Amino acid sequence: MMINRWAVATMLMLQAACVSYSSVDGVDNLWREIPLEEFRRGETTQAEVLDRLGPPSQLIRLHDSVVFYYLSQKTQGKGRVFLVWNQGEQRSRYDRAVFFFDTGGLLTEMAYSNESISR
Amino acid sequence: MPDYAVTTVLIAMAVVGTGCASLEQHLGDPLPLERYEQLPTGSHYGTVLALFGPPHRMTALPAGMAFQYEYVRIDERQYGLVLPGDIGKWIKAVYGTAEATVQAVVLLFDSDGSLRGADSEIFLADGGGGFSMTLIFSMGSLTDTRTYEESADSATVWGRGMIDPLTQVLNRDSNLETGANGLQLPGTPVRAGQHSLEMRAP
Questions:
Q1: How large is the ipTM?
Q2: Across the interface, do B152 and A94 touch by the CB < 8 Å criterion?
Q3: Res. B87 pLDDT band, cuts 50 70 90
Q4: Helix boundaries (H) for chain A
Q5: The pLDDT value given to residue B62
């Protein structure tokens, strides 16, 4: 019968499985709870940043000075598994904070990324 | 539509279409490339940080430093075919290809932190292909796109370097991931240039 054939066709299209997953890597993005203005150029020390944000993801040597680089990565994915067509999408976001210090260990520049991960 | 036409469509969908897939992967957010190009030479790196945030990579240079911002999108297409036979109907043969779209911006600063030059680039790269026999209700990548995926998250896996193969450990003084020796774009081949001493598989 015609109706049965269309029913089978519809089932083939709709008989599907959905997948959803997410993961977080890197340090806890504590900086999102602290306004950037609370870190002051020429006053904030390395010890204060470490105390408030914990160990950085990377310590980068720039000649005589040092950079604290914090990174948190969140990956989210979703997929639709049909009989005749599968579709998947995965997005990774990188929440970053960076702090530049002079040779005396005082803050010279800092920034948060425009890309952020909600806490 | 006549019965035979519906039947034909169903058979064609089941045999030819089964196992086709589209996998899309975004690493980061797309870059506002036109805004980078508007940066005047001489801008302080603090201005760059305020506008664009921390770079994805940075490195010291003999007389200054460099920032690199990047975004990668990987599109994988899979084409499948159901195999004949009682067992075959639960197995699909799949061929997949991938293409990577890379956006990258490099900014060079002098020792005073003033911008000396900047340039942006968008390029397409072939992510390779792969073939697989797999169960009909399954979906996964068949291509090797590690060189693009590893780029942005290198900061989270630096400790893994301690167990790298010996040739890579011996070349660590020239490593381009540490921020002390330079930068490289996502997907850069390892058989030439700074990584060639590490004798990695292509």
A1: 0.82
A2: yes
A3: confident
A4: 2-14, 46-53
A5: 86
